[in-house]
Amino acid sequence: MSSRAPDQAGGVLKATELWNASVGRSVVPEWSFLTNHARVLLCIARDPGIRLRDIAAALDITERTAYGIVTDLTTSGYIEKERDGRRNRYRIEHRLPLREPTARERTVGEVLTLLADFAAPATAKPRKTTSARGSRTSRR
Fold first, then answer.
1. CATH code of the domain in which 46 resides
2. Cα(first)–Cα(last) distance of the chain, in Å?
3. Tens-digit pLDDT profile for residues 82-99
4. Does residue 111 carry a pLDDT above 90?
């Protein structure tokens, strides 16, 4: 029995697309601009103490795949792994160049800064509030 069903336009939907539509989720494309290695690196950049289980869940990959990617990144020198009690903590080597031949002039840190938005947040504008007497004031 096929896990595909016809859609309204006469095409075919996968079972996951049908499920996503039934629970109100938007259909996620089956491709990404970033490789799983880059996505794992972003997870680690956001939380250096993240567990493999959490990486796998966040990226919708298996723990075994997450382990293999972390091993690749460690072996290649892009991250260093340290034991912290029963868990691992990761440190990214920000100054290493990318492996992509066309982007070797960029470092891992520059790309992570761009993708993970590590730049300092812009100065927040004061919020307008209403005082007890009804006049508008700025809150700093």
1. 1.10.10.10
2. 63
3. 999 999 999 999 888 887
4. no
Is residue 41 within 8 Å of residue 34, measured between CB atoms? no
Asked, for residue 17, whether it belongs to a domain, the answer is: no
**Cα angle 93, 65, 24; round to 5:** 105
Q: Is 102 a domain residue?
A: yes
Inside any domain, residue 73: yes
66: left (phi over 0), alpha (psi -120 to 50) or beta: alpha
Q: Do the domain assignments include residue 21?
A: no
| Residue 69 pLDDT level (bands cut at 50, 70, 90) | very high
Q: How far is CA 11 from CA 14, 29, 66, 138, in A?
A: 10, 16, 34, 55
Q: Torsion over CA of 107, 110, 114 and 116, rounded to 10 degrees? A: 90
Say whether pLDDT at 45 is over 80.
Answer: yes
More confident residue, 80 or 22: 80
Q: Which domain holds residue 47?
A: 32-139
* Count of residues in the chain: 140
Total domains present in the chain: 1
